[in-house]
């Protein structure tokens, strides 16, 4: 088996080691004898979503988000079709915000891709620090680091989880991230996947099932060290 991961704009959306998410996806596939292929998409490159099995958008500053938005607008329709069809996406912070209708900053309004009917508004106080989230999808807490000025309003969508410690989508709603079909949007950097191997395997399993159109269950890995790190972060933040 083989899986193709599309890493969108790694030079622009790359805050706080989000690239580590790609390495984690690759490693956890390779450890199971599944061949990972990573296609980096740079500014101006064409994106053929039919060739991708999993798409990753990292976080970026407002300035970089504005640049990326210009390129992403060209693939708005095909990106939406990919998501609606069940294509797997992980979008972190700036990348998460870009999937909505807009992100209103203190300077301008950055147009979103309108894949999700959500929006983000800038507030002067940044929401920064370690964060711990409880998600129904995962046995262990989801841990990470957040640093954003944007508050994301997700309406009636399902959040990724409830904030146990930290700020999340708005700092007030008690909710963090979003789950829509096979898309996960989240404010958690850190990077997210090495700290939360369950989330990594969730994405991989869904991407393999979507690609091969059958139920695939990944063989478990010994995550003793990873879970110890996860527990350490969770306990330290609470
Ligand atoms: N620029 C966005 C904000 O400040 C996203 C930042 C990020 O990706 N960490 O809200």
Give a written overview of the molecule.
It contains seven helices and twelve strands. Helix content is 30%, strand content 30%. α1 (19-30) crosses α6 (197-212). The model has no long low-confidence stretch (mean pLDDT 96). The chain has a six-stranded mixed sheet. Strands 5, 6, 7, 8, 9 and 10 form a six-stranded mixed sheet that branches. β5 and β6 (109-111) form a beta hairpin. The protein binds glutamine. Glutamine binds at residues 15, 59-62, 65, 93-94, 97, 147-150.
- Radius of gyration, in angstroms, nearest whole number: 17 Å
What is the straight-line distance between the termini? 40 Å
Please give the CATH class. Answer: Alpha Beta
Strand content: 25-35%
Structural class: alpha/beta
Write the topology of this structure:
Layout: E1 2-8, H1 19-30, E2 35-41, E3 54-57, H2 62-72, H3 76-84, E4 88-92, H4 94-98, E5 102-104, E6 109-111, E7 119-134, E8 142-153, E9 161-165, E10 175-176, E11 178-180, E12 183-186, H5 192-195, H6 197-212, H7 224-237
Parallel strand pairs: 1-2, 1-3, 3-4, 4-12, 5-7
Antiparallel strand pairs: 5-6, 7-8, 7-9, 9-10, 11-12
Task: Provide a quick synopsis of the model.
This protein is an alpha/beta fold.
Top keywords for this entry?
238 residues; alpha/beta; six-stranded mixed β-sheet; binds glutamine
